């Protein structure tokens, strides 16, 4: 999927991202001011994305070159579960709980699935 994105859009890099639906602020020196002044209206061009760190695809020969074409970066949208990062023991414990939950859901699904053989 990432390599298809690179070929279709003729870009040198593809990264995994998730859309951020939170309100972001910047410190003005005296107080916080909203980065986005459109409080209720949101257009696609105004969406904010954060890098998830799961996918980095770089075209061969462009890794350390600082050229203008490198400024065009493609992306793959990743959901919240797929973008979960483990940076601490606490986050590892949460990941284990999520994994056990997914395992139970899968077992229940497989136990109730009428399989046809033959």
Helix content: 25-40%
Structural class determined from secondary elements? alpha+beta
* Straight-line distance between termini: 34 Å
Instruction: Please tell me how large the radius of gyration is.
Output: 20 Å
Low-confidence segments: none
- Structure annotation, total helices: 2
Note the run of SSEs as H and E.
HEEEEEH
Oligomer: single chain
Describe this structure in words.
This protein has 118 residues and is α+β, with helices and mostly antiparallel strands. It has one domain. Helix content is 27%, strand content 25%. It is built from two helices and five strands; from the N terminus they run αβββββα. The chain has helices at 2-9, 89-112; strands at 13-20, 25-27, 32-34, 48-58, 73-77. The strands form two sheets. A three-stranded mixed β-sheet has the order 4-1-5. Strands 2-3 form a two-stranded antiparallel sheet. A hairpin with a 4-residue loop joins strand 2 (25-27) and strand 3 (32-34). The longest helix is centred in the last third of the chain and has 24 residues, at 89-112. It starts with a helix and ends in a 6-residue tail after the last helix.
């Amino acid at each position: 999927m990432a390599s298809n994105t690179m070929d279709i859009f003729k870009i040198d890099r593809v990264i995994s991202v998730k859309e951020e639906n939170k309100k972001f602020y910047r410190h003005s020196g005296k107080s916080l001011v909203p980065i986005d002044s459109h409080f209720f209206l949101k257009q696609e061009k105004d969406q904010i994305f954060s890098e998830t760190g799961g996918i980095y695809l770089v075209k061969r020969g462009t890794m350390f070159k600082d050229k203008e074409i490198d400024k065009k970066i493609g992306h793959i949208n990743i959901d919240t579960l797929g973008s979960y990062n483990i940076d601490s023991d606490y986050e590892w414990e949460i990941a284990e709980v999520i994994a056990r939950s997914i395992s139970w859901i899968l077992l229940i699904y497989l136990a109730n699935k009428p399989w046809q053989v033959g």
